[in-house]
Amino acid sequence: MITISDDPGINRRLLENMQTALVLLDEQLRVCFINPAAQALLAVSARQVHHHRLYPAAPGARVLERLADDALKQGETFTEREVRLEVAGHHQITLDVTAIPLSESEVLLEMAHLDRRLRITREQSLIKQNQATRHLLRGLAHEIKNPLGGLRGAAQLLERELTQPEQREYTQVIIEEADRLRTLVNGLLGPNTRPNKREVNIHEVLERVRQLVDAEAPEGVRLERDYDPSIPSLMAEPNQLIQAILNIVRNALQAVGSVGRIKLRTRSQRQFTIAEVPHKLVARIDIEDTGPGIPRELIERIFYPMVTSRPEGSGLGLSIAQTLVHQHGGLIECWSEPGQTLFTIWLPLEMNHGG
Predict the structure, then answer these.
(1) Which residue of 42, 44, 62, 82 has the fewest CB atoms within a 10 Å radius of its CB?
(2) Contact 77/100 with Cβ under 8 angstroms?
(3) pLDDT tens-digit readout, 86-112
């Protein structure tokens, strides 16, 4: 049996210096000991939770307490994989949790933070996905664009030879449909030039998007802001960032319908890695909505071109947004459940990045 006393000792020093998050609970699920790694992970302090239950200090701790209670009652070790947990500020984290009964009255919770590993795997998948589909679609779009131009030109020549207005209606249909397909193909090709970057305030970009969407939003939709004014300027092409964020926010607007909430939130984060490139400082831009959520079968493919859950949608908006953000050294991630969808844009804040 492991015992942890209030006196300095080798057990306590060892546990306090471990990178693994550890919490010791008694039979009433009150905290006897919590090491610094667990405090940082759960966004609580030792003074806040000592001799108290983890919940409500850590909003998502009910699942931890349930696992600890099962281990105590059955005298067996339990492990639960990829547990999603809400911590302070409605932030979601993913953990592997093991509950180890040390005696009939003590249980040790061991928590491994998976978000970094899962995020790196997801990032690599998103980047490979984006690169593969862009190459494929560029080739396909070029093959379509050439005969499309010939088709439109032939329809224009034919129209000049026709004398009856009702006959010209048919050539106009051909020309209009050719123009519509050309617009679609240009969307598939996406931006083909490197962004002309300059110093940009991300909040000016977000306010421009908010103004555009506010004009389109029904009265029952609230657009909220939660900005961190300390975020420094970044090197970016503002029109491309506006377009990328606008695509996401318009999707959110369509998702919430006539009544709902869309929140724009910014934060900075230090020592953050995007696509295996470490950055000293990055900007995090969250677009959160209260819509019905993205179907589970689509969430892994949401950034593929032509993937959409709406019959009237083209499925190009998120793919183009991902490409535009990627050109700025950043990445877009998505998490969704019924009633809450969160798109997060990560952008490097180093002034010389990609300049």
Answers:
(1) 82
(2) yes
(3) 776 556 788 889 999 999 899 999 988
CA distance linking residue 26 with residue 350, whole number of Å: 47
Distance in angstroms (rounded) separating the CA atoms of residues 244 and 185: 18
CATH number at residue 58: 3.30.450.20
Q: Give the separation between CA 321 and CA 333, rounded to whole angstroms.
A: 11
Same domain, residue pair 218 and 101:
no
Q: pLDDT per residue over 219-263, tens digit each?
A: 999 999 999 999 999 999 888 899 899 999 999 999 999 999 999
Please state, in angstroms and rounded to a whole number, the distance separating the CA atoms of residues 219 and 258.
Answer: 7
How many CA atoms lie less than 13 Å away from 11 in the CB half-sphere?
11
Scored b (16 or more CB within 10 A) or e, 190-226 reads beeeebebeebebbebbebbbeebeeebeeebebeee
Global pTM reads 0.57
Helix residue spans in the chain (DSSP H): 10-16, 36-42, 46-49, 62-74, 115-161, 165-189, 202-216, 238-256, 296-299, 317-326
For the chain, state the CA radius of gyration.
Answer: 26
- Alpha-carbon distance 148 to 153, whole Å? 9
Find residue 261's DSSP bridge partners: 222
Instruction: Give the structural domain span for 52.
Output: 10-113
